[in-house]
Structure formats: structure tokens, C-alpha cells
Design a protein that fits this description.
The complex is a heterodimer of chains A (about 120) and B (about 110).
Chain A lengths: L4 E3 L2 E4 L5 E6 L6 E7 L6 E7 L14 E5 L5 E5 L8 E8 L9 E2 L3 E5 L1
Parallel strand pairs in A: 2-10
Antiparallel strand pairs in A: 1-3, 3-7, 4-5, 4-8, 6-7, 8-9, 8-10
Chain B lengths: L3 E3 L4 E4 L4 E7 L7 E6 L6 E6 L3 E5 L2 E6 L4 E6 L8 E9 L2 E4 L3 E6 L1
Parallel strand pairs in B: 2-11
Antiparallel strand pairs in B: 1-3, 3-8, 4-5, 4-9, 6-7, 7-8, 9-10, 9-11
Classes of the chains: A mainly beta (about 120), B mainly beta (about 110).
Amino acid sequence: GAGVSQSPSNKVTEKGKDVELRCDPISGHTALYWYRQSLGQGLEFLIYFQGNSAPDKSGLPSDRFSAERTGGSVSTLTIQRTQQEDSAVYLCASSSGLAYTYEQYFGPGTRLTVT
Amino acid sequence: QKEVEQNSGPLSVPEGAIASLNCTYSDRGSQSFFWYRQYSGKSPELIMFIYSNGDKEDGRFTAQLNKASQYVSLLIRDSQPSDSATYLCAEDRDDKIIFGKGTRLHILP
């Protein structure tokens, strides 16, 4: 079956521009996560959506970052006024959201380069 | 700041030997723990999860959890060159999955 998809796979943007990154989770998965991974680093939690609950935004690094999830499915991560330190791979993951079934399925990521 | 700590490595292990990866966590409220494997340039994939004290075995992999000492470990028996990757430890913290920075494992042929 289809896995988690993300688009674009690569994005090069100029400093100060806004970017939108898209995640399409596995059908039926209620939980969706965004992470950021800088070169050679671990995964930095950004935001978590679970069903219709208010998202957990505690990992967003600044108010330039926002995310939404429409209809409990597709999610968009928006970065406004991009900075060079925003350059990283942005990973999306989804899971079924069932108790004790936390396996996350990751998408291929979007590599963002801010010049 | 509650952290998930891992030695960044690299950890070099001869082929066929046992690789031992360790992780400590500071949030005593965390209940479930995960080991992910990430090949260079690829996304993480789940190897094991564990939520009970003790050992959990799956093929060549054994996860160990000690909640009193707040550590989680992953043992890889009969290490293969294909096991060379970064291994990420993660905890379920209030339904958020929080990752450590990972340990690079290199299996020497």
C-alpha cells in the first residue's frame, strides 16, 4: 500500500522567502508528526497532530513556523521569512494512533536549502 | 529540559560480534521506548519498541528496558555489515515521540 509521501523532495529558496512543505500520511492514520533533522543530527520534534485534538506545537522553534492538517489527512508545514538556519531535512511521520501501537512510518523527507 | 541521551559514536564492532547500543532518559513518566535504524540519506525505520521492564527479543535484536535506572539498550547479535547505520533511541512522552541524537554503528567486515 501507499506509504507516507512528502513534497517537494528538494526545495531551494532564498533567505526571507516563505515555503510550504506537504505531507500526505498513510490513509486512516490519525497521528501525524513533523520533525526536522539537520546534517548529522538527530530528529528534532516540531509538531504533533492526533485526530481532532488541538495540535501539540511545543517543538516549533519560532513563530515563523506553523502547520495545519486539513480534514485529518494532509498536513502542510509553513516556514515564513526563511533563514539559513532553517536548512535541514523535514520529515513527516504518521501512525495509527492506537494505544501501544506507536510505530511511526516516515516519509522520504523534504530537503530544504535556504541560500 | 528532559533529554534522551545517546553516545554519538561511531561504535565499531567486528562482523559476527554483538553490538550494544545504550540510551538513557530523564523523564520518569515515559512508558514506551523505541529503537529506530536510519541509513545514511534515508528515513528512520522502526526496529523495536518496548514498554515493559526486561528484555524483548526479535530475531537478532534484543531490546532491554530498566525503568529504575532509566536506560534502554539494544543488542544486535551476529552483527552484519548491513547493520551499519545510525540507531536512534526514542521515548513516548505524552504521546509525542522524542528522539535522541543517535549512535553511529559501523560493522567491520
